[in-house]
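Possible regression after last week's pipeline update?

I re-ran a chain I had predicted before the update to compare outputs. Posting the input and the new output here so someone can diff against the archived version. Not blocking, just want to make sure nothing changed silently.
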Amino acid sequence: MKEYTEVTVSTTTQGSEIVSDLFLRLGAAGTQILDRADLPDPAKPTAHWELMDQSVIDAMPEDVQVKAWFEEDALQSILPPLREQLALLKEQSGLGTLALSMQGVKEEDWAENWKQYYKPFRIGEHMVVKPTWEPWEEQPGDLIIEIDPGMAFGTGSHETTAMCVQMIEKYYGGGSLLDVGTGSGILAIAAARLGAKDIVAVDIDPDAVRVAKENVAHNGLDGCIDVRVGDLLQGLDRQFDFAVANILAPVICMLAAPLKNHLRKNGRFVCSGIIAEAKDEVEAALLAAGYIIDETKRQGDWIAFSCHI
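New output (post-update):
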């Protein structure tokens, strides 16, 4: 059994995705974000707060923690660039202390312990995201998405994913769909639950593609979702009626113009993963590329756009 070191960085909601992305670029076997903001809101009647055990809630850290797991043999080579990048991030405001801590763990421990935080919950009007190991009493109108996200590829609880699902529910009107940066495959599966039959889901990370394929199979959707390894639009030689991308703001800015060539007339683009401070930059990139923005949505510190050509 492999020995791993669990590396933890304390940050904020704003910094969590940035730190997670840094870990993955340094070769982490997986990451996990522990953020109280991701827990169901007891004030919202659609949130199944009662499914979350109070002891789990109490165990959540007060600050946002991003955990990553590195094989012990590789740890010494990643520590210098990690510390260097954290020092650069400390120059930005709003990212918290970025304090670093480490502890040794066995593979079986980090592969399972995060599951205690992941319970069924509603997302959008009809979608219910349910981990494969949890029961759910289905209600009329429920569209079930079964997810086993593995480590770090998206549980659906983050604001960016929630907004994308809400916009897919609102704007998807049929036809083919492209999911760029699919992660766990949750957005592609949501579209399939709404009737999409021709979906291409792309991710640059082979591990994410493996997890997404497993989730597609869990949901019995192999026939309508093609999950493949790819770098954004590279290798795609067709057009789609609808595209969705839940990735980082700079990537969306870079993606906006070339994506138009892969959208049919009146095709729609839903994008999120945009920290609030980058809203104007992304909006400008979308407008410059010729999109018409129909809706700008905000949840917490995150922004999503729905636009068409």
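Follow-up from reviewer: compared with the archived run. Residues 49 and 290 are 42 Å apart (CA to CA). Marking as no regression found.
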